Amino acid sequence: MSEIKSLTRRFGGRFVTSGTVAVADRKSDEPALSVHGLSKRFGDRVAFQDISFALGHGEVFGFLGPNGAGKTTMVRTLGTLIAPTSGSGTVAGIPLTPENGVEIRRRIAIMPESPGLYLRLSVTENLACFADLYESRAPRERIDLALRAVGLAGRAGDPCGALSKGLRQRVALARALLSDPQVLFLDEPTSGLDPVAAHDVHELIDKLRQRGVTIFLTTHRLEEAERLCDRVAILNTTLRTIGRPDELRERLFAKTLTVRTPAALADPGRVFGGLPAVDSWHEDGAADYVLAVSEQVIAAPAVTRALVAAGADVLSISESRHSLEDVYLELINEDEEANRR
Amino acid sequence: MNTNTRRVQAIFRKELREYRRNGPIVSTMAVIPLIFVIQPLIQVFALPASAAAGLSHEHVLLYLLGIPAIVPAFVAAYAVVGERQQGTLEPVLTTPIRREELLLAKALATLLPSIAVAYAVYALFLACVELFALRTVASALVHPSELLAQLAFTPLLAGWTIWIAIAISTRFNDIRVAQQLATLAGLPSVVVTTLIAFNVIPATLGLALAGAAVLLVLNRLGWRITSAMFDRERLIAGTR
What we know:
The structure holds two protein chains of two kinds. Helix content of chain A is about 40%, strand content about 25%. By secondary structure, chain A is of the alpha/beta class. In chain A, helix 1 (about 5-25) packs across helix 5 (about 140-150). The mean pLDDT of chain B is about 90.
């Protein structure tokens, strides 16, 4: 993956050149991708409904949701493979209409969930075909660098049919890099990869972000989304929420402090009542107390002082951490409960 | 609509590489035509010298025009449904390629080996006739005008069969069904060439010119109609 630097550096000039043209085309405040009220139905079945969001240039955007939530259909719609039923949008600065399909596809790349390689052809032959489809300048150099970026330079001549699932996934990723895309759609890019290879892909995504490539990432790996994405959206046919991972946590879960003492407090109401920034409290076990707070930085020292003043020993005072997974599960469980009712 | 040559060549080259790596595809293309010529060859070898006079008024060799009408059907029927089933269609459609370019590349890539097989079988037939049939029978059987017809009509008939087969391939979800239907769809062309070969339809220069013109138009129409039938959404999402 050290080759990523080389890819960035060597294509840096060309990317900036083509990027400059693209930048000249677009207004600086224009989003890299935006959709307004976008819906897609297949007959009676709703794939997704009334979706609106906008992505900035160089943003890594995580698109999460359970199976059948409409994520892949959204990628296909934005990639002009299928037409939306209603709503509008722009992709890489081009209005999302069937007439603009070719122009949009010139500026984007999609790595589908399934690599879809020609198994009888070698890795290089697969990439050469796509370099020509994208009308790449200096295709050979482009292919070499893409292969080095995904750590496959040594397997260039191998038939794709002889590669493992993970290596095929890497070839598909190299294919997506051939066109110097403004917007890159990655559908489960680390599915089937071992931890080291997945880590390499994460590094590559970081580098692409630094180059100003907007990345639309669908994934089931929530820790991956949390680590890589500037913002995430959770889709379950409708858009359930969108924001930075920390924003979503704050929006969904109250801030709490958990106090653990060796023995139950004699009068916890007197200790915790009336403290600054502490809104309420409840016992959570024999000697554990959960305090709902408005500002942890104010509440934590006040709670410590109150416990010391009450002569209580303290084992720990910790702020509760919620992961993106907690947010995801909370929202999806809400939907399931609503569907059951 | 402007056709981008580089994109057409990209798919064309890719298809030819796949044929090369999958030898049985082309070799099996040659099996049916070989079966097609065995019986006529045996009959020709058995003909006495007295049959030569009758042969000079017939166009038996035009019977071999049935070969380009049949040979490409099986392979061309795989063009879209096959790529779809092996999961390679979606990545291609995410590139700037237009459906017209994709289909033209696939048609040309099927046309090339089909013509090669048809000409090779025809050449083999002529060689066998020259080597093993009676001299008088051979010279009565082979007419220069028919050689010309064979050269001209082979690509036209193969092209028409290819467009029908690709059209079928865009509409069916099962490779086997598409291949069987495409083979059947080539039969009307075989019937027409057979009727001409056996003088039921008189073979004239006017008929040849009209036939060539009709086939040219049908090939052009085949490209347009097949392109119109190529529905990205149905092929990718499996709906509509």
